[in-house]
Amino acid sequence: MKQNAPLLILVVWCLTGWFLPVQADILIKEWNTPKKIHILFVPDPSTDLVSVNFSFQQIGSAVDPKGKEGLAAVMMQLLFERTVEGSDRFTLQKKLKRLGVIHGIQYDISHDNINFWFKCPKDKLKEAFLIVKIILTEPSLDEKELAKMKNYDPAGSRLATAGELEFAKKILFQKVFSPHPYALPTSGTLEGRQSITIQDIQQSIQQRFVREKLVFSVTGNIDQNVLGKQIDETFGGLPEKSPLPNIGPAPLNFDGQMTILHKDSPQSGVEFGQPGVAYNHPDYLPLLVINDILGGKPFTSRIWLEAREKQGLVYNIQTDLSGNQYAALLTGSFECDNQNAQTVITIIKNEWKSLKENGVNEKEFKAAKTGLMGRFVLNFTSPDGIAQYLLMCYLNGFPTNYINLRNKLLNEVTLEQVNRVAKEYLNLNQLTFVIVGNPSQ
Question: Hey, what's the torsion of the CAs at 285, 286, 287, 293, to 10 degrees?
Fold first, then answer.
């Protein structure tokens, strides 16, 4: 218990905002291997486990060919769910378990990237890398398994089977991004998936899994030269470049209107949003403070206090700064009984207007900064968290050392900057709502 006490105190202090955290700098080593693979590495002598995060950037679902929307998702499902004897998912999991790979090899697909992560003992890293290589480059593609995957219609694709919030978010993105690929879910469309062939999968593997798009973020007690050599030996045979084009900037069609999709349900799910600023924009941190005050932090944000605490109109309500490589958003969501939806929307608009016109006060400004800085430190209580956040920063265009600079930069943000950014960016004319439910009741 004594060993865990300091961490417990740190967590409590961070969550309650009782102190201004001091963060020790994290040593980051960055280089390109002889095979031109980019590596971010944080040495950690405290553990013999190596945490690996890596990404093939700018080859996510947004570059799926027209008419084959869902190719990236089907490809990854097929690579990890193969049923060919000797290469099925159960055999794979047994191999990984014998190597001590904790929780197996995980992946996700965004519009921009395909990301992977795993953790294993350092003396098994080379073997784990080899399994990853086999998965990505030596698949046993099975027509029967492909037929099942490409005919799968995600539940969220139809109003009748989707959750209210899930479908509202889908429609909001369709409105905002159309005709850009960001308008489509990463799972694609049923029509697009049904057109996919084994040849499409094979070509996609060759075009997406290339060295110029590959970046690693690693933490652990492993020699830097050994790490680089193992990565080159395993992945150096991948094609160097991809022929896939960059998708380019996305339109942001926030029209300030309200769209209602009627569904026979006792509750409404509502998604709303307006343009934000990119993660690496100079005004991002002031807008982050604004988001925290407006709706980003449960229990204390303005819209939470008004809609949830004072009037009890919602089950939950929040806002968030989010984005892709070519778009930045300030979005939010809530769920409520049908008869409360319009009232909550009025509350949101009023708080948007009040913060824009009147700004924030000194007390909530200081509380927001302290809370944001404390919660940021919690990203780095484990090697996994460090590797994950370091990769996220790189993919979003931050400088390598941002992980050490962020709280220092946030601490320098002034009340005057925050209020200027509120006036400049909060825009009721663009604040757009999508309601799924039966709000007329």
Answer: 110
Give the CA distances from residue 256 to residues 40, 168, 428, in Å, rounded to whole numbers and listed in that order: 42, 15, 7
The number of residues making up the chain comes to 441
> What are the CA-CA distances from residue 50 to residues 330, 405, 419 (Å)?
35, 25, 44
* CA–CA dist 408, 401 (Å, integer): 12
Per-residue pLDDT reduced to its tens digit, 186-243: 999 999 999 999 999 999 999 999 999 999 999 999 999 999 999 999 999 999 999 9
* CA gyration radius, the chain: 23
Strands 258-262 and 102-109: unpaired
Of the CA atoms within 13 Å of residue 202, those in its CB half-sphere come to 8
| Domains of the chain (ranges, CATH numbers) | 24-170+179-235 (3.30.830.10), 258-437 (3.30.830.10)
Tally Cβ neighbours within 10 Å of residue 16.
11
**Across 70-83, average pLDDT:** 87
User: Can you tell me the distance from the alpha carbon of 368 to that of 163, in angstroms, rounded to the nearest whole number?
Assistant: 32
